[in-house]
């Protein structure tokens, strides 16, 4: 893209001005883009589809709890929309201008996970060649989404409990206490109550996390949401795959309503995407 031009012989002062102008323009464009993304993301309850009574009830709870700083525990089978809810809680809170940071507790082994969460000082363990901040620190004033919380070891559970209770942490191998103001949203598909009985999940942490529990029922228990969800996904994937699909056969919905969707909404979406791609 041409921003300006210079004539020979080059005047250094003029060149500097032109470069400054180009940099300003780039910064403006980036800021503009960020702002546009934010606007699209915000107030995202409308991205959550659901006319069933349980979902309507959920929207009421979300509207009440989102603006507060309460810790929310989102439970539900795989693909029921736990991450979508976590996002909506952040976007509809007063923290929405600060970061929403996600960490999947099942993806990393205990030591790596702790370093990822709390950070480490140089030399804290073999391979810790430099200091590193964990995810809690950049989430300051924002929201930290702890996904798959049922996969935390008991030691890590204790450390997270401390941050929740005191709002303080130390990086691994460090002795400086760092204060953080972070709202936690946690999610799991596991039965934490059963894990408490088996002593694999701390009851005190459970109470702390589930100040407001939000349970997403499996899709088969809210099949009245299937028509709206299906229309939404057909439209989305028709646009994405540039297919001219105006409607689908009513029998499709009948089949969808009878199926039990073990993979829930993610499975419904994947199925529809496949159908859209394969249709001509
Ligand atoms: N009510 C809903 N309306 C629209 N889209 C939804 C809804 N619920 C879930 N989805 C979509 O379904 C997909 C799966 O949702 P999400 O990733 O939030 O599920 P999850 O419960 O976190 O699953 P997992 O346990 O496997 O991580 C996403 O693409 C999400 O946008
Ligand atoms: Mg998820």
Short description:
With 280 residues, this protein is of the alpha/beta class. The chain contains ten helices and nine strands.
SSE blueprint and pairings:
Blueprint: H1 12-41, H2 53-65, E1 72-76, H3 82-91, E2 100-104, H4 110-118, E3 119-120, E4 132-133, E5 143-147, H5 154-166, E6 168-169, E7 178-179, E8 183-188, H6 192-197, H7 203-209, E9 212-216, H8 226-240, H9 250-258, H10 264-278
Parallel strand pairs: 1-8, 1-9, 2-5, 5-8
Antiparallel strand pairs: 3-4, 6-7
The protein binds adenosine-5'-triphosphate (ATP) and magnesium ion.
- Derived from helix and strand composition plus strand pairing, the structural class reads alpha/beta
Shape estimate = flat
- Runs in which pLDDT lies below 50 for 5 or more consecutive residues are none
- The CATH architecture designation of the largest domain is 3-Layer(aba) Sandwich
What small molecules does the structure contain?
Answer: adenosine-5'-triphosphate, magnesium ion
- Biggest sheet statistics: 5 strands, parallel
Strand order of the largest sheet: 2-5-8-1-9
Mean pLDDT: 90
How do the helices and strands follow one another from N- to C-terminus?
Answer: HHEHEHEEEHEEEHHEHHH
Q: What's the total helix number?
A: 10
First-residue to last-residue Cα separation: 39 Å
The CATH fourth-level homologous superfamily of the largest domain: P-loop containing nucleotide triphosphate hydrolases
């Amino acid at each position: 893209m041409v921003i300006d031009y210079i004539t020979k012989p080059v005047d250094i002062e003029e060149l500097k001005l032109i470069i400054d102008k180009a940099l300003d323009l780039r910064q403006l464009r980036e800021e503009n883009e960020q702002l546009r993304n934010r606007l699209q993301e915000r107030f995202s309850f409308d991205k959550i589809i659901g006319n069933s009574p349980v979902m309507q009830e959920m929207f009421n709870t979300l509207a009440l709890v989102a603006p507060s700083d309460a810790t929310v525990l989102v439970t539900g089978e795989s693909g029921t929309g736990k991450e979508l809810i976590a996002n909506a809680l952040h976007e509809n809170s007063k923290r929405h201008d600060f970061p929403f940071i996600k960490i999947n507790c099942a993806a990393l082994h205990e030591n790596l996970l702790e370093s990822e969460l709390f950070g480490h000082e140089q030399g804290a363990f073999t391979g810790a060649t430099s200091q590193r901040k964990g995810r809690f620190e950049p989430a300051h004033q924002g929201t930290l989404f702890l996904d798959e919380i049922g996969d935390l070891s008991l030691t890590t559970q204790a450390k997270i409990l401390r941050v929740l209770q005191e709002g303080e942490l130390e990086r691994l191998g460090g002795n400086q206490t760092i204060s953080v103001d972070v709202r936690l949203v946690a999610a799991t598909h596991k039965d934490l109550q059963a894990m408490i009985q088996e002593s694999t999940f701390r009851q005190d942490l459970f109470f702390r996390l589930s100040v407001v529990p939000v349970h997403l029922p499996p899709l088969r228990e809210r099949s009245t949401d299937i028509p709206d969800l299906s229309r939404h996904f057909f439209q989305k994937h028709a646009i994405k795959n540039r297919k001219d699909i105006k409607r689908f056969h009513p029998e499709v919905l009948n089949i969808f309503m009878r199926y039990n969707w073990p993979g829930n909404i993610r499975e419904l979406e994947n199925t529809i995407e496949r159908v859209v791609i394969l249709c001509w």
